[in-house]
Amino acid sequence: MNSMKRNDAIHFARYTRDNLALIERLSTSEPDVHVITQLANSLLGLVVFVWERQFVAHIKHLNLTELEAGGWPRIEMVIGNSDTLGDFVYHLRNATAHGLITFSSDSKILSDVVITIEDKKWKDSPVYWCARLNGENLRDFCFKLADLVEDSIS
To answer: What global pTM score does this model have?
Structure first.
């Protein structure tokens, strides 16, 4: 029955956080380990899992400005706006599910990479929402979101 834990949002978030931390440690000694790629995979897993497991109800009203004041990373809004974590996760979910995330470089250094996240209404429609954050901020966001899932549900 132990293998079924990953179906639970708390365990999935914990495993995602642990995998990301392991990849970070390995990246200092292993040339073929890519932290940015793992960050994108972690983001995809966390956001889609959180959304599909209805965890968004727990975060929909959390104010991003207040979270930032409490240590969450700053998210640069380029087009549109997201005042709440729930709205931001909604757009992240759409962007990850539809491949609307781009990276500014192939650098393995977190601070060197800017991640652009976009949302569209339809495949051929213009982008109506766009946010940017660097690799360090994406890392911090993934860890904070995983912690929030664990703290909120447990």
So the answer is: 0.81
